[in-house]
Amino acid sequence: MADFHEFYPLRRHNTFGFDVRARLAAHIRTEADLLAALADPRAQGLPLVVLGGGSNVVLTGDLDALVLLMEIPGYAVVDDGDGWLVTAGAGENWHGLVGRTIADGLPGLENLALIPGTAGAAPIQNIGAYGVELRERFASLRAHDRQTGAFVTLDREQCAFGYRDSLFKRNGRDRYLITAVTLRLPKAWAPVLNYGELARELESVATPDAAQVRDAVVAIRSRKLPDPAQIGNAGSFFKNPVVDAALRNALLAAHPSLVSYPQPDGGYKLAAGWLIDQCGFKGFDDGPVGVYGKQALVLVHHGGGTGAALLKLADRIADTVQARFGVRIEPEPVIL
Ligand code: EPU
User: Fold this and answer.
1) Which EC number(s) does the record attach to this protein (predicted)?
2) Residue with the nearest Cα to atom 28 of ligand 1?
C-alpha cells in the first residue's frame, strides 16, 4: 500500500514557502513505492506532480493531483578506468552529494556547490553555475517511463540538455519519473576557474583543490543569493535571454554598461539581472513578494503571499524590461 496523505500541506516542500495543499501526496523512498503509488486505486485519474526539493517550482494554488515526494536515497561509486561513475538516488540532496564526492576524493562537482534541490531534479533544468553545467558531468539517469510502464536508462544525448533546459521540460515532461542519476567525474581533474568572480575569489590560492573551489563557490553564493531556509525563493527566477549580435550591439551602443556573453552560435546571452536592475526593481517589494536586494534575478516571498501574486510581479518585471530593452525574459522555474 502506498504511503498516502490527503490534503497534504506543501509549504515545507517548496523553497518559496507557498502554503498550498496536495489532494494526495506520497513519500517515495524506493522504486517499489513509486510503482505502488502509481497503481493505487486512490491515485487513478489524478494528474501527477513530482517534487524533489521543490526548489525550482512556483505553486500557484492547491494541487488537485497526486504529488510524489521523491525521497529515494542512494550513493554508489564505480571505477570506469579514466573516470568515476557516481550514482545517486533521486532524493539525495544535491549539495550533500557534492560534498560527499569531494570528501571521497572525486572532484568535478565543486562549481555546482550549494545549488538547492535534489540529485533527481538536477538534470531537469540542467543546473549550472560558475562555469560548469550538469551536462558536462552527466552520464545517464534511470527513470520510470509512464508510457511503457518500464524502467529505462537515458544517456546524455537522449536527455537533450540545453541552457536550463532538457527533454524533461519539453516532450518528456509528463513521461519520465527520474529515480537515480549517474554522473561521470573524469580522474584527470583541473579546477574550472573561467568565471571571473570565482577566479578573483581564489586569487590568493596558487593551485586550488576541489574543496577550496567548493568553499569559494559557497562564499560567493552566500553573499548574493538568499538562503531558502530564511527567505522564500527559487534561485534565478528568469533565464538569461539569448539575442542575436545585431540586437546586442544596438543595446550595447545605447547602454555601454550592458552585461553580455558571446555564445558558440554567434548570439549573446544577456544578464537578465542587469536588465531588471536597470529598470529599478532590485529590492522592490510588492507586499509579501518582491525582488531580492542583492541580485535582481531572484524573486522572493517573505511569507503570507501566493504564487499567483509572485507571477503577477514577474509579468510586470518582464513587461517593463521588454518595453525598455525590447527583450522578453522568460521564467526559469516550473509553474504549477
Ligand atoms: N547584475 C546586475 N544587477 C543584478 C544582478 C546581476 O547588474 O541585480 C549583473 C552582475 O553585475 C553581473 C551579471 O549581471 O555582471 C551576471 O550576474 P551573476 O554573476 O550574478 O550571474 P547571473 O547571470 O545573474 C547566472 C545563473 C545563476 C548562477 C550564476 C553563476 C541563470 C538564470 N542564472 O546568474 O544560476 O549561479 O550565473 O554562474 O543562468 C539559478 O539558476 O538559480 C542560478 C542562481
Assistant:
1) 1.3.1.98
2) 129
Helix (H) or strand (E) holding 4: strand 4-9
Please give the distance, rounded to the nearest whole angstrom, from the Cα atom of residue 16 to the centre of ligand 1: 19
Which pTM does this prediction carry? Answer: 0.96
* Pair 46, 80 in one domain: no
- Domain end residue (candidates: 222, 242, 274): 222
CATH number, domain with residue 203: 3.30.465.10
Phi, psi (deg, nearest 5) at residue 68: -95, 115
Structural domains counted in the chain: 3
Which has the closest alpha carbon to 335: 298, 303, 310, 305?
310
**Protein residue whose Cα sits closest to atom 15 of ligand 1:** 259
> Is any atom of ligand 1 closer than 6 Å to the C-beta of 233?
no
Is residue 61 domain-shared with residue 125, that is, in the same domain?
A: no
pLDDT digits (tens, 9 = 90+) for 232-273: 999 999 999 999 999 999 999 999 999 999 999 999 999 999
* Domain of 298, in residue numbers: 226-335
One domain, residues 218 and 82: yes
Q: How many CA atoms lie within 13 A of 311 on its CB side?
A: 14
- Does residue 297's CB lie within 6 angstroms of at least one atom of ligand 1? yes
302 and 283 in one domain? yes
What percentage of the chain reaches a pLDDT higher than 90?
99
Q: Which three cell numbers stand for residue 17?
A: 514557502
